[in-house]
Write a structure and sequence with these properties.
By secondary structure, the chain is of the alpha/beta class. It has 20 helices and 15 strands. The protein has helices at about 1-10, 40-55, 60-70, 90-110, 115-125, 130-150, 160-165, 265-280, 305-320, 355-360, 370-380, 415-430, 450-465, 535-540, 555, 565-575, 580-590, 595-600, 605-615, 620-635, and strands spanning about 25-30, 35-40, 75-80, 210-215, 285-290, 325-330, 385, 390-395, 435-440, 470-475, 480-485, 490-500, 510-520, 525-530, 550-555. The strands form three sheets. Strands 6-5-4-13-14-15 form a six-stranded mixed sheet. It has a six-stranded mixed sheet with strand order 7-8-9-10-12-11. Strand 4, helix 8 and strand 5 form a beta-alpha-beta unit. The protein is globular.
Length: about 625
């Protein structure tokens, strides 16, 4: 989702994610490669000065042009004096400079009128390589939220604060930051003798046939997808008509079944997925749907078009899975504007109650008539229910934790009530002897989810790991999983979260769904299968349905006796000891998509692939260090 990051960071302090750098002190590294040591404070001041000059004169100085030109140069390697561990220093630097410029000029504004500030944000956005209609649409859509937050805060956030939230996953965290201090409101955690102290093992003993549960996620339906239109449009999303669209030719025409480029899913492709599932898996007993129906044209959404798309998808699910329990949750794209899940106590024109009321009606056919369920959906689109199979579903709305939810800059703890509810619901399940599956759209790890949530959520998982038999996420579009370890023991693996990947091909991926085989008594995950088709092959024969096939069985492919946390920890140690095995996992993570296989995965990529599995709380790399340390010792 990096292309959409360019857009989302333009929203409050609106201008973050385009790449930028400045040449403060440089050393030539062979040929044309340049290493740049940047003093952040000096760069921010220089950028602000140059922008103010540009605003007053209408002329960009040679120095300003130089600063902006450097954004485009991939041969510049940047390091930051106050952010030495930044994974993407250019992203961090651009966030800092653009946010600092906007905030300083906001302070100087006497009228603070909406039109003036919207134009300021758009003017900064236009400096970068974004389409003007993307800049203008995003800023306009998010302006009311942006101005409300700025007007309500007693102290304006610093540029550093904006960037450490929006780009936590890029380590845009200054040395002086208090982000990692345990200063957030905390969930009250109960004590129990059942809390696991060592790695969780399998206890599945059922002699019956396993239950078949389907996991569908990240459909990203585009009602305006047009086959044959230019799929390489130079915008943040393509495969529909956008302004300034060049004619298509054979090399860039959008495919019939979808496209590997920045494109979402046509209706006939969505229908094909559902028909394939019903035909291939007649014994399905439940469906988990973990959100993201809406497309990636985030600068061009409306409340009405979002609701229309959701109704269309929900109706399709009701028709294709009639009589089968289905448990839905929201994705970050269901909100309008995208990503914005507001606290309940902000004005009605800005809060998210409209969405919660809408899905309460849409989900009525699937959920029990229970006043408690109606109450929690109205509060925040989360709920719990006992399934006809006998286990408990806890369906979260964890989208408030998504780092591009700008309401985190207004309040970085308003989600605590939902987390306390999660704890209390799990405690009730424990007392009742129930086994639990948890659904949540955003994976609870550092690239996506704010540290305040991940820290408390991890505590809850650790406390109730003995009854949490599976977690199911979406959002990343990747076929991946996360292993949770005890905070005080990086060798004790206690729980697992499985990602459903995506129906959409956005971006450079094959479409998929997942099949989970579940023990009928313990409700442990016995195996998972990933089903895909190759998009290149499918688009060669648009008059025929795609050739779906089982890409792999997790247990068979990795030769595991079970999928318990202990077994997966042992698997990770095997992956850490072999680049070949780790590359194989990366290949499956990318769903064997042709563009990703062409791109490949170098040593740094492989290390990050391994660490992403175990990094479930921002700032805690102890399990990663243990695995990577073992890998380095193996190489010695």
């Amino acid at each position: 989702m990096r292309s959409s990051v360019v857009c989302f960071a333009l929203l409050l302090i609106t201008l973050s994610a385009v790449l930028g750098s400045t040449l403060i002190d440089s050393t030539i590294i062979g040929g044309d490669n340049v290493a740049v040591e940047v003093q952040i404070a000096k760069y921010k001041a220089e950028f602000l000065e140059e922008f103010e000059h540009y605003q007053s004169t209408g002329q960009r100085s040679a120095n300003f042009d130089r600063l902006l030109d450097l954004i485009k140069r991939s041969n510049i390697r940047v390091s930051l004096d106050e952010m030495p561990h930044a994974r993407s220093p250019k992203v961090c630097l651009t966030c800092l400079s653009a946010s600092h410029t906007f905030l300083e000029l906001y302070k100087k504004s006497e009228s603070k009128q909406k039109g003036e500030l919207v134009k300021l944000a758009q003017d900064i956005c236009h400096l970068y390589n974004l389409k003007s209609y993307v800049c203008d649409g995003l800023v306009e859509l998010n302006s009311d939220m942006m101005l409300f937050i700025l007007s309500q805060l007693q102290y304006l956030p610093s540029a550093e604060r904006v960037c450490e939230v929006a780009f936590q996953g890029e380590d845009c965290v200054a040395k002086s930051s208090n982000l990692l201090e345990d200063r957030y409101p905390k969930v009250v955690i109960s004590e129990s003798r059942h809390t696991l102290k060592t790695s969780k093992v399998s206890t599945a003993r059922s002699a019956g046939e396993p239950l078949t549960i389907i996991h569908i996620t990240d459909i990203h339906y585009d009602p305006d997808y047009e086959v044959g239109v230019n799929a390489d449009c130079g915008s943040e999303a393509c495969c529909r008509h956008v302004p300034d669209l060049d004619p298509a030719d054979s090399s860039n025409a959008a495919g019939f079944w979808g496209d590997y480029r920045e494109c979402d899913t046509p209706w006939h492709t969505v229908v094909d997925v559902m028909e394939q599932i019903r035909k291939q898996h007649p014994d399905v007993v439940a469906v988990y749907f973990t959100g993201d129906i809406i497309h990636h044209f985030t600068w061009n959404t409306t409340l009405e078009s979002n609701e229309q798309a959701m109704v269309q998808i929900f109706q399709l699910l009701k028709e294709r899975f009639a009589g089968i329990p289905l448990y839905p949750i929201l994705g970050n794209h269901e909100a309008h504007p995208a990503n914005l899940y507001a606290p309940n106590d902000v004005p009605a024109t800005l809060n998210s109650k409209y969405l919660y009321d809408f899905v309460a009606k849409q989900w009525e056919d699937w959920l029990p008539e229970d006043p408690t369920i109606q109450q929690t959906i109205a509060d925040g689109a989360y709920y719990t229910a006992i399934t006809p199979l006998g286990h408990r579903i806890i369906a979260l709305n964890n989208n408030p934790c998504y780092v591009h939810n700008w309401w985190l800059l207004f309040s970085d703890n308003y989600y605590i009530r939902q987390l306390q509810w999660l704890h209390d619901t799990l405690q009730g399940a424990e007392q009742a002897g129930e086994q639990v599956h948890i659904l949540g759209h955003v994976p609870s790890y550092d690239n996506y989810c704010y540290v305040g949530w991940t820290r408390e959520y991890r505590k809850i998982v650790e406390r109730f790991a003995h009854i949490i038999q599976g977690q199911f996420n979406g959002h990343s579009h990747l076929d991946e999983f996360n292993v949770y370890y005890r905070k005080d023991d990086p060798t004790a693996a206690v729980n697992v979260a499985w990602n459903g990947a995506s129906t959409t091909t956005f971006t450079r991926l094959n479409p998929n769904y997942k099949v989970f085989y579940v023990d009928g008594e313990s409700f442990e995950i016995l195996d998972q299968e990933t089903w895909i088709y190759n998009l290149t092959e499918a688009n060669l024969t648009p008059d025929q349905p795609p050739r779906w096939f089982k890409e792999y069985s997790f247990r068979e492919h990795y030769n595991l006796t079970d999928l318990s946390p202990r077994s997966l920890d042992q698997l990770l140690q095997r992956l850490a000891g072999s680049d070949e095995a780790l590359y194989d996992y990366w290949r499956l993570k990318q769903k064997n998509a042709d563009p990703m296989l062409t791109r490949g995965c170098d040593e740094d990529c492989l290390r990050e692939t391994l660490c992403a599995v175990v990094r479930t709380e921002y700032g805690d790399d102890r399990v990663c260090d243990r695995l990577v340390g073992g890998k380095e010792r193996e190489e010695l």
